[in-house]
From TrEMBL:
PANTHER family assigned to the protein according to its UniProt record, in alphabetical order: DUF4139 DOMAIN-CONTAINING PROTEIN
This protein's name: DUF4139 domain-containing protein
Higher taxonomy: Bacteria, Pseudomonadati, Pseudomonadota, Gammaproteobacteria, Salinisphaerales
Pfam families reported in the protein's UniProt record: DUF4139
Keywords noted in UniProt: Signal
Length: 453
C-alpha cells in the first residue's frame, strides 16, 4: 500500500501547521482492538499482537497511529517485562512525517506526457528549508515545491512513527502481547436538538455524539466507546490508561454503562474516522421531558440605572432529567414546537446525572422588560442602612407572563417590607419574587431592605 504526498502540498501544509498526511487502510488494516475516546480530549487504545520472541533481552517494533504519549504505555504478556522503549517524534504533520523518514527508502513518482506513472527508487537523506534531498543511484538530487517528482512511501505496518519496545522474555516462541496507551487529539461531545411545546409543557430531545478527529491520523478500531465524565489529568494532559475487556459481546447502544465515576457509551460496530474529519453517531433514544419556559429579571442591589431605562428579561427553559440516562456535556439547541422554523435559543449543559435539574438560557424576551429605580436610601440611628427599590415590569405581548424577579442583597440584609410576598426558598443574600404581569400591561414591585451599616 502506498501513501502519496506531492511535494508542493507537503511543504505548504508544513508551513501552515496543518496535518497533510493520512494513512489509507483496508477493511481491517491497522485496526486496533479497542478504543475509548474521552469527551475532555485524548483517547485510550488497547490492542493485542502476536509477537515472535526470543529468550532474554530484545527489541520489538510496535506500530502506532496518532500522537502517542509514550509515557502512558502499559504492556502485558506472560513472562514478559517491559524494560524500556523509544518512540519517534509524535509530530504527525507533513513536516514531522517527512523528517521521520530521513535515512529510509522512498519512491519518486511523476506522470509522463501520456498520463502513465513513472517511478524511481531513492533514499531520503535530508531536508533543507522547503526542499528535500534524495539519493538516486550515486548522486544527490534536490526536490522543491515546484519539482515534477513527488515523494511516496509505504503506509501501515511498523511505520516510522511507531514504538521500539525493549522487553525481557522468560521463554521463546510466539505469544500475544497487549499494549494500552494514550494518543492526543481525538475528542467528542454530545449535541442535543430539542423541540419545546409550550402548550403541552414538553421538551422532546434527541442527541448525537460528535467525534472530532484532530489527531492527524485515522481512527480505526474494531470496538470503541465514548466516555463521558471528568477524570484527573497529570499536567493537563489526557486520561490515565484504563484496562478494557476484550469481549465479543455487543453492549446495548441505548444504555450507557457506569465505569467507575464516568459513563461509557458503546458504538455499534467498528469505528472509522479519517484524519481531520468529524463524524456524528446516534447516542441515545429520543426522550420527552416535562419543561417550563420562565422569564427572569435579575439585578444587583447596588446596580441602579437611570430613571426610565429599561432592560429585557432573560428567557429560561427549566426541566429535570427524568430520563433513564445521564446527559453528557454538550450544546442544546431548542426549536419552538408551536411555530414553524423558529429557534428559541441554544445553550451548553454540563454533565447531568439522572434526576438533576437543568436550566437553559434561551436569550432575552423582546416583549418583557423592566424598569428599576431607588426611591429611598437612609441610615437609622442604630447604624442600620435602609434602601427602598421600585421595579416596574412591562408585558407587551398578547399573553400573561410570570417573571422571576431576583435581587442580590448585601450581606446580612433583610427584606423588611414588600408589596408582593417574596419566596421563602431564596438563596443566601438573595430575594426572589414571582410577579404576574398581564398581557399588554404592567406590574410594579416595591420593597425595602435593611442591613448593618
Amino acid at each position: 500500500m502506498i501513501s502519496k504526498l506531492s511535494t508542493p502540498a507537503l511543504f505548504t501544509a508544513a508551513l501552515l501547521g496543518a496535518p497533510a498526511f493520512a494513512q489509507s487502510a483496508g477493511e481491517d488494516d491497522g485496526a486496533v482492538d479497542a478504543m475509548a475516546i474521552y469527551n475532555r480530549g485524548a483517547a485510550v487504545i488497547q490492542t493485542t499482537r502476536d509477537i515472535n520472541l526470543d529468550t532474554g533481552m530484545q527489541t520489538v517494533g510496535w506500530p502506532i497511529d496518532g500522537r502517542l504519549r509514550a509515557d502512558t504505555l502499559w504492556l502485558e504478556g506472560d513472562g514478559v517485562r517491559l524494560t524500556g522503549l523509544s518512540a519517534r517524534s509524535s509530530d504527525d504533520s507533513g513536516a514531522g512525517l517527512l523528517a521521520a523518514r530521513v535515512g529510509q527508502p522512498v519512491t519518486l513518482l511523476r506522470d509522463d506526457s501520456a498520463g502513465q506513472a513513472q517511478t524511481r527508487e531513492a533514499t531520503l537523506v535530508g531536508l533543507s528549508g522547503d526542499s528535500a534531498l534524495v539519493r538516486v543511484d550515486d548522486r544527490i538530487e534536490r526536490l522543491t515545491p515546484n519539482s515534477l517528482w513527488r515523494l511516496a512511501w509505504p503506509a501501515g505496518g511498523d511505520a516510522p512513527s511507531g514504538l521500539q519496545l525493549d522487553i525481557e522474555a522468560d521463554s521463546a516462541g510466539s505469544q500475544p502481547l497487549t499494549a494500552t496507551y494514550q494518543i492526543d487529539g481525538p475528542s467528542w461531545q454530545a449535541s442535543y436538538t430539542g423541540r419545546f411545546d409550550a402548550e403541552a409543557g414538553e421538551l422532546s430531545l434527541q442527541s448525537l455524539a460528535v467525534i472530532d478527529n484532530s489527531g492527524g491520523s485515522d481512527l480505526n478500531a474494531k470496538q470503541a466507546w465514548l466516555v463521558a465524565g471528568d477524570v484527573s489529568r497529570a499536567n493537563g494532559r489526557g486520561p490515565q490508561p484504563m484496562m478494557m475487556a476484550r469481549s465479543e459481546a455487543k453492549m446495548s447502544d441505548s444504555a450507557p454503562q457506569a465505569v467507575g465515576d464516568t459513563y461509557r457509551y458503546t458504538l455499534d460496530g467498528p469505528l472509522k474516522v479519517a484524519a481531520g474529519a468529524t463524524r456524528a453517531v446516534s447516542m441515545m433514544a429520543p426522550v420527552t421531558l416535562d419543561a417550563e419556559r420562565r422569564y427572569r429579571f435579575e439585578n444587583s442591589f447596588y446596580a441602579l440605572g437611570r430613571d426610565g431605562a429599561r432592560s429585557h428579561a432573560a428567557v429560561q427553559l427549566h426541566f429535570e432529567n427524568s430520563s433513564d440516562e445521564p446527559l453528557p456535556a454538550g450544546v442544546v439547541r431548542v426549536y419552538d414546537g408551536n411555530r414553524k422554523a423558529t429557534l428559541m435559543g441554544e445553550d451548553s449543559i454540563a454533565d447531568t446525572p439522572k434526576g438533576a435539574p437543568v436550566t437553559l438560557a434561551m436569550g432575552s424576551a423582546f416583549d418583557i422588560t423592566g424598569e428599576r429605580r431607588m426611591v429611598e436610601d437612609s441610615k437609622t440611628e442604630n447604624n442600620q442602612r435602609k434602601r427602598s427599590v421600585e421595579i416596574t415590569l412591562h408585558n407587551a405581548s398578547e399573553r400573561d407572563a410570570t417573571v422571576d424577579v431576583v435581587e442580590h442583597l448585601p450581606d446580612a440584609a433583610d427584606v423588611v417590607s414588600s408589596s408582593i410576598e417574596p419566596r421563602d426558598d431564596s438563596a443566601a443574600n438573595t430575594a426572589t419574587w414571582e410577579v404576574d404581569v398581564p398581557a399588554n400591561g404592567k406590574t410594579t414591585l416595591s420593597y425595602s431592605a435593611s442591613w448593618p451599616g
